[in-house]
Amino acid sequence: MKIGISKSFFDDLREIIEQKNEHKAKEILRELHPADIAEIYTELDIEEAKFLFLLLDPEMGADVVAELEEDDRERFLSALPGDVIARNFIDYMDSDDAADAIADLSEEKRVEVLSLLEDVEQAGDIVDLLHYDENTAGGIMAKELISVLDSWTIETCLKEIRKQGEYIDDVYYIYVVNNDNVLQGILSLKKLLLKDPSDLISAAMDTNVISVNEDTDDEEVAAIMEKYNLVALPVVDDINRLVGRITIDDIVDVIREEA
Fold first, then answer.
1. Residue 246 is inside which H or E element, if any?
2. 92 in helix, strand or coil?
């Protein structure tokens, strides 16, 4: 639901917050898009924001925090204990959004939050992303992607996709790598479904892959994705090992920040 945020809406919302009416607040939040809730934040003080945001289910809360402007996100997260940040928000974010959020914290709280994450692999991915310059491909990429080995059959590939896909919101391409994780090609979902299950991935993949190095400037990444009309772009290191992917929503953020 898209809302027109009016003075009367905020008057009603503040009354609900003052009354600590959790039931009514949840009813309102349930009808809103994360971007709308993030817009509401700009009109609230910290205590009001804490009351509302901590009522959100964790997945919605993570989406809302990811939508906040950098200064607003830093102000909000800095007002929360480390365990709440980890449990209510970071645990449910994609690695790129989580890295952006954690980068806003003080070094002491950053270490605390990372140590409290339940998923050690996710924590490791976030640490890796924090090492990149924020204006590079590495700084805007996410670690979540689906990769398969070029020696597998289509049938084996489909089984693996079911496992990996559980943790990924949007699947645009399947990335094909060798045993050293060097990028070999890509597969579209359509092509994958139309192939015989006994076919080898290596025979079905497209080897004409457009990729970017992890140190590529983010504006250059945006230009490449626009030129080739891409919705996702693999990121590789200096020896062409697959390290992440950039999706169109990441590039929209770059364009908005540069505007």
1. strand 242-247
2. helix
Check: CB of residue 129 under 8 Å from CB of residue 96.
Answer: yes
CA distance readout (Å), 145 to 67, 100, 141, 171: 21, 18, 10, 8
Q: What percent of the chain has pLDDT over 70?
A: 97
Shortest CA distance to 175 belongs to which of 155, 198, 150? 150
Question: DSSP 3-state assignment of 175?
Answer: strand
* pTM to 2 decimal places: 0.86
| CA 125 centroid distance within chain | 12
Q: Percent of the chain, pLDDT > 90?
A: 76
Complete domains list, the chain, with CATH: 7-131 (1.25.60.10), 147-258 (3.10.580.10)
Given a cut of 50, the residues of the chain with pLDDT beneath it are 1-3
Which residues, 6 or more positions from 259, have their beta carbon under 8 angstroms from its beta carbon?
none
